[in-house]
Structures are given as structure tokens and as C-alpha cells.
Fold:
Amino acid sequence: MNLKDLKYLVAVAEHRNFRKAADACFISQPTLSMQLKKLEEYLQVQLIERDNRNVLLTSAGSQIVEKAKLILDLEKDIKDSAKSFQNPFEREIRIGAFPTLAPYYFPKIMPKMNKAFPKLKIYLFEEKTEILVEKLEQGKIDFAFLATPVLSNKLSHEVVFKERFLITASDKNPLSKKKALNSEDIISQNLLLLEEGHCLREQALEFCSLNLLTENASFRATSLET
Structure:
């Protein structure tokens, strides 16, 4: 048994498809199938149930995949530790941010990071908060910019900056004449909100009181620009 075999097994578990898993591992499908068969023979247990349409894990396969993920995470940690001793700023780093922050914040920090750490290979990910938290917990990204509160007991966090909570309105709307607003002012308005899963939407619903809010049901956006 070797680490590559474990990577192949995890890839099949994630993609549920031999061809896609082989492509993700940069090998041919026959090679992938052969190596997984050897792994099953070595462990003396069936890991995958195969038919013409589906790829399913056996009970043993599901348990071993979870352990394989831990082993592969440790392998990555070992490599990262070794690189950090060679040169702490000559490595790969993966940074995430949610869509209502990423297009504004990444352009501000990336030029400074590239200048300060020219040998640092930075990969950027823009995803909804729920997906970013999942990737963090799985070790697929190193850190992410998230809106508080961060609902995970597996992660540590620091406050980077704070923003005011604002509403945008037409200059013809009476709200635009007020210097400050409260939830009662907003509840009667026909609001345009981001779609499900965006933290800014959840914050707006929490602030305005979900039960009393009037939302425009014909509009769903994935970006502030829209």
C-alpha cells in the first residue's frame, strides 16, 4: 500500500466516477482501476461496488476513505513543514473569501502580498461561507476571510476589520433623507436581497426580523454589482 493508492481511492470517493477520478489524478482510467484492485487485494476487503452506472463505496470503503483523508492531510502537513524550514515564504498558500468581499478585498491585498512575498504561490478561492468553512475543516484551503460569527468549533479566527451595515436606496425613497435607520424603517420596504447561502442575506434577515420582512420574491442576486 502506498500514498498514491490512497489518493486514488479518495478521488473515486469524491467524484463517484472512475473517469473523472482518473483525470483528477492525471492517470489513465485502466491504471486507476488496476491500482484500486491491488489495494483491495492488499487489504483483503472490497472497497468499491462497481456497475455500469454507479460507483459506490462499501461500508469498509467509507471507513477507509475517512482514514485515508487523515493520512493524506498529514502528508501535506509534513511537506509544508519541511518547506517552511527551507523558506517559510516559498510555498503554496490557498486563500478563500465569500463573493461579496472577494472582488473588493483581493485586489487590495494581492499586490502587497506579491511584492512582500514574491516566491509565495497564492491560490484564491471565491465561495459561499458554508463551502469555505467546509474547505477549511478539510484542509483544502489554508485560511479564509469570513463574516462573523464563524459557526465552527474546529477553527480559530481573528478580527481583521469591521464594516458598517448599510442600505442602498433610490434618492427618491424617503429613507435616503434619513441620517440613520432602524429595523422598523426597513421592514416596510420591498427589499432586494442576495440568494440563499450568502452571509450578507442572513445578516439582513437577522437585522430586519425574518417574520416581518417584505422581500422582492422576483429577484435573487449572487453579487452586489447585480
